[in-house]
Amino acid sequence: MNETEDKSIEDGRRPQRLKILGVDVDPVDASLALRRVSDYLKSPGCKQVVTINPEYVMLAGTSSRLMRLLNRAELNVPDGIGIVWASRRLGLPLAGRVTGADLLPQICGLCESDGHSIYLLGGAEGVARQAAANLQASFPRLEIAGTSSRDPDADTNHETIAEINSSGAAILAVAYGCPKQDFWIDRNRDLLTGVRVALGVGGAFDFIAGRVPRAPRLLRQAGLEWLYRLWLEPSRYRRMAALPRFGFQVLRSRQR
């Protein structure tokens, strides 16, 4: 974070967003993202946080609905290493990645220190519950308002919303995957009467619950977590096919 960004925060303005192939990305590191979340908890209304990676950007290029959603979300953090790479190619380098798997525990630490509660929604049966137990072990004073593996279908929506609202949760973490989780939040944010921050966390529950191992730290620092995930789950190759197309379009946009 540079001096200009610090000044913007002090006088209440949000630093200018970086636009990557039409998608807005906030120039935040993990510390600043957490400060934003802390500020959102003090104001009314439900704010949406999205973890942006190249897959999101490529999907948004084919879906005006997703593009509108991403560009009106209050906070878009740079999750994928491809986003950091693109920012450097475009001459506005980001400090680094802010992954959902890292941000969620940090938010839980914030909740523990400030007395806020969190609700975990999504994932396979039992995963949210195990993730909650592991988070509780790491943050003993953390209040888990509730967990649910209920799916995002409209048939269960009323029940899900009622349960979250009655729980008193200030933060909602949703793990339905990209972009289902973000469409769900966008569709229901006005119905979440007590929630102040709703964020899509992708596979974070699986990591925290111990169902899926994260890449070793050295690989994460080198930006090769995607390669480790591909080794563990070869079926992800279809999703990874977006990466070369993303890189080509970024380079072409830079030339223009």
The Rg value, from CA coordinates, equals: 18 Å
Whole-Å distance between the termini? 27 Å
Global morphology: globular
CATH topology of the largest domain: Rossmann fold
Q: Look at the structure and give the mean pLDDT.
A: 88
Q: Which sequence of SSEs, written as H and E, runs from N to C? A: HEEHEHHEHHEHEHEHEHHHHH
Please give the domain count: 2
Report the strand count: 8
Percent range for β-strand residues: 5-15%
Secondary-structure-derived class: alpha/beta
Main beta sheet, described? 6 strands, parallel
Give me the side-by-side strand order of the main sheet: 4-3-8-7-5-6
| Count of DSSP-assigned helices | 14
Low-confidence runs of at least 5 consecutive residues:
1-12
The CATH architecture of the largest domain can be given as: 3-Layer(aba) Sandwich
* Main CATH class of the largest domain: Alpha Beta
Helix content: 40-55%
List strands and helices in order, with pairings.
Layout: H1 3-10, E1 18-20, E2 23-25, H2 30-40, E3 47-52, H3 54-60, H4 64-72, E4 75-78, H5 81-89, H6 100-114, E5 117-122, H7 127-138, E6 143-148, H8 157-167, E7 171-175, H9 180-188, E8 197-200, H10 204-209, H11 217-221, H12 225-232, H13 237-240, H14 242-255
Parallel strand pairs: 3-4, 3-8, 5-6, 5-7, 7-8
Antiparallel strand pairs: 1-2
Helix pairs in contact: 2-6, 3-4, 3-14
